[in-house]
Amino acid sequence: MLNPITLAVVGDSAASGVGDSDDQGNYFGWTYHLAKAFQEPLVYINASRPGARSGEVLKVQLPKVLDHSPELAAVIVGGNDLLRSTFSPDTFEKNLRQTMVDLVSNGSTIMLLELHDPTVIVPMPYLVGRICRRRVRAINEATHRLSKEFGAVTLPTRTLTGIYEREKWHVDRMHPSKFGHQFIAQQFAVLLRERGYFIGEVQIDPINNRSRKDSILWMLRNGTPWFLKRSVDLFPGLIWLSGAELIYILRQKYSQLSRDHTGAVLGSNC
User: What's the rounded Cα separation, in Å, for the pair 8 and 68?
Assistant: First the structure.
């Protein structure tokens, strides 16, 4: 009998399965749907936690899975790092790199997920949107650099056809819906088959869109408390960052005007 493959998962809510749960509040998510599609013996371990950042993944979650010597390890993190006022691209990349070093040294093939652009589906003030896109870009650039370095299996989320269709997103517009999670599992299945893994078709359940009433109730019960909790840290930082972003834009425009003026003066003296 073949030894089972161990699939370990560390990360944040995108790894835990937020957006895909049953009536008892149990999360499933794309890694669960992917694990079910394997056609060879598999041990599935999910140590992720909603709200986790790269530092927690490295220091708390990773030790829990390394003892199992996973052949496959999904490292899904970055969304919470970018939402904090203390966000540092260098710190994120350092944490992710060390996580990958430890996994690869243990014989794991790593799976990474590119962050989507939340400004496409979540209306944001102009300055906040600029900050968010720049941070997403910084995280994705680090993810791709490390993916290339360590030979990871990486899903280019932003370029997937249909990724921003409404039915693929939970009512909070920050996490995939059940259909979205199953769609992501489908895409990873394709990539892993290319690496030689025996994976069948990922089950896709009928789409069950929430009614407007259900969406409002969910936001009141779950979305608002999360938003208020996160705002304690995030809002002061966003106010400061928005001011800094505005100054940055004005300086850029001033520099451009100065260059244009200098060029005009030099041209008139010729």
Answer: 8
